């Protein structure tokens, strides 16, 4: 037990920074161990999921009442970011039917409330409330 404590104490500052960075960006830990066999399996899995998610993303964008590009962005951008920052191999990313329905409802309600109206209506209310509380 004391040998483990001694080893931990003997780490340099650079090693501590490396451990911290590895925790923030998990790809730094597994990429050096990645081999061709895993790459082939991941390529097949990626193509399979990609072929399924494209029509699904287009449909969910239609449900949300958004242009199709937004469905594709929501399907793929999360995966690209997750490659670098994710740490779980079993995770679901991308659009869902419930998320699309909620987005459609929120965008319908938000279309009548623009940032200019917020500035016109919201700020004076916030200012008057802060003036009354002081």
Which class of secondary structure composition applies to the elements? mainly alpha
Strand content: under 5%
- How far the N terminus sits from the C terminus, by CA atoms, comes to 58 Å
Question: Would you identify the regions where 5 or more consecutive residues have pLDDT less than 50?
Answer: none
Report the helical percentage.
over 70%
Question: What features would you describe in this structure?
Answer:
The chain has 134 residues and is mostly helical. It has helices at 2-9, 13-24, 27-30, 36-64, 68-85, 97-110, 115-133. The relative contact order is 0.08.
Structure in a nutshell:
The chain contains seven helices and no strands. 78% of the residues lie in helices and 0% in strands.
